[in-house]
Design a protein that fits this description.
Barwin-like endoglucanases; Transferase, Pyrimidine Nucleoside Phosphorylase, Chain A, domain 3; Pyrimidine Nucleoside Phosphorylase, Chain A, domain 2; six-stranded mixed barrel; four-stranded antiparallel sheet; 18 strands; 20% strand; Nuc_phospho_transferase
């Protein structure tokens, strides 16, 4: 080893840092001293023809890591794929090309298409740290992205990945902007629309700020981590799919940005529209229905906010070649009974199987959305889509199509149930007027959802019900006693999650 040597042996740390490459070095390591590396420094790592940018974590105890070695997180290990005995070199990298653009946005300047292209390129190239991405997400929050910037960001996100070509076929898609617990319409809508003979390749996200995303719920019943070749095979065979978009290269920056938005617990209209429509364009869709639930504790709080979002969706959709229809729905209370992946999956199956006790509100929303999508067909007679959707659901055709899609994605699994449960009851008598969407969702998350697939909340009362004191309101489901106690303690301190009027 020479004085100028900046190489170290590589070892596997066995630490999951999600998609963020991280390197671990001892503080007395000769490379740390020579290069002046400190904790959270961004460092360039080169192994043969492969190079990555990673974040440094400094190890202060000498026990587990030799001084002449660097440990790689799982993400860094997967990118470099070292062999036993390999040494990598470590240097200070050039600043990311998008540094100045992010700084400009922080100070309120309007960004050009080239700026957004540079930012998205650095995000997908893993050249930005989590702090830099958080700065970008925060600088774009609220109303800080105008419509022109939203169009530029959407195009940049789409260009960063692959766009599917379905040979000129009419491709349909739908999306809900979220904020409404239990609103798991997508798997049923996909089954109905595919059963009607239309093509609907649905890619979905995992939860950002909710107890379950569509991908989380669908994963309870069938594999969702398909690659593009498998997605294409499923859609060409069955007409539709419900898969996780994070495993595809369709809009690769989106999943990385979602990882930053999740702990921040917000997303803006501009970022929401760019996220949704870049994925719709990338999957090859042309006719897209957007569900916008509106309510005082939903993500979209007022009709005026819904109208503003619809205007942005339409403008950006037109710019990227999408025909957008917006469906404004009731967002005043959760949908169905289950909140959490497995509990929502049970509601989905109850509707598909036409069970007598299937949630009527979930069924009604499904028929509204599937009907609106069927009405988007160029040759459709106006207003008959809902009746067609009901016929496909009631005949069992939608259930059969859903099972066929699950089989094509890797096989159907019946949802199981959590072992640990606790019922929360009413502390007063009266009519149930409203349920706070955000706080009931928080209870489900404290119980372990969405990471714990069986965790969540099962609603036992609905707005409009007349309740006596001590009547059951909801049941908490958890996979461990500790998570059950944690969620129950919070729930018992939030007596007004369910608004009762005497």
């Amino acid at each position: 080893m020479t004085a100028a040597d900046t190489s170290l042996h590589l070892v596997r740390a066995g630490i999951d840092t999600y998609s963020q490459p991280v390197v671990y070095m001892r503080e007395d390591c000769h490379v740390c001293r020579a290069e002046g590396f400190a904790a959270l420094t961004r460092i360039g790592v080169t192994l043969g023809p492969k190079s990555i940018i990673a974040t440094l974590n400094v190890v202060t105890e000498a026990g587990w890591l030799p001084a002449d070695a660097a440990a790689l997180s799982e993400a860094a290990w997967a990118l470099l794929q070292p062999r036993p005995g390999d040494r990598a070199t470590f240097v200070h990298p050039e600043p990311p090309a998008s540094d100045s653009a992010i700084r400009a946005k922080v100070y309120g300047q309007e960004l050009t298409e080239a700026d957004f292209t540079a930012i998205i390129g650095d995000i997908t190239g893993r050249r930005l740290s989590e702090l830099q991405m958080a700065a970008f997400v925060t600088a774009c929050a609220g109303e800080r992205l105008n419509i022109a910037e939203t169009i530029r960001l959407t195009r940049a996100m789409q260009r960063a990945g692959e766009t599917l070509d379905w040979g000129g076929a009419e491709v349909y898609d739908k999306h809900c902007v979220g904020g409404l617990p239990g609103n798991r319409t997508t798997p049923i809508v996909v089954a109905i629309v595919a059963a009607a003979g239309l093509m609907i390749p649905k890619t979905s996200s995992r939860a950002i700020t909710s107890p379950a995303g569509t991908a989380d719920t669908m994963e309870v019943m069938a594999p969702v981590a398909l690659d593009i070749a498998a997605l294409r095979r499923v859609v060409e065979t069955e007409g539709g799919c419900v898969v996780w978009g994070g495993n595809l290269a369709l809009s690769p920056a989106d999943d990385l940005l979602i990882r930053i938005e999740r702990p921040l617990d917000f997303d803006s209209d501009g970022q929401l529209v760019a996220s949704v429509l870049s994925k719709k364009a990338a999957v090859g869709a042309r006719r897209v229905l957007i569900d916008v639930p509106v309510g005082p504790t939903a993500k979209v709080r007022s009709p005026a906010a819904a109208a503003s979002l619809a205007q942005r969706l339409a403008a950006v959709g037109e710019a990227v070649g999408l025909s957008i229809a917006v469906h404004v729905s009731d967002g005043t209370a959760p949908v169905g009974r289950g909140i959490g992946p497995a509990l929502e999956a049970r509601d989905v199956l109850a509707v598909l199987r036409r069970d007598t006790d299937a949630p009527a509100d979930l069924r009604g929303r499904v028929l509204d959305l599937a009907g609106a999508l069927l009405d988007l067909r160029p040759d459709a007679a106006a207003g008959i889509g809902r009746a067609r959707a009901a016929a496909l659901l009631d005949s069992g055709a939608a259930e059969a199509k859903f099972m066929a899609i699950c089989a094509a994605q890797g096989g159907f699994r019946e949802p199981s149930a959590a072992r640990h449960r606790a019922v929360v009851t009413a502390t007063a008598a009266g009519r149930l007027e409203a349920i706070d969407n955000r706080r009931i969702a928080r209870i489900a998350k404290l119980a372990g959802a969405p990471g714990r697939k069986l965790a969540g909340v099962r609603l036992l009362a609905r707005p409009g019900d007349l309740l006596r004191r001590g009547a059951p309101l909801f049941e908490i489901h958890a996979e461990t006693p500790g998570e059950l106690d944690y969620a129950r303690s919070y729930a018992e301190a939030q007596a007004d999650v369910f608004e009762l009027r005497e």
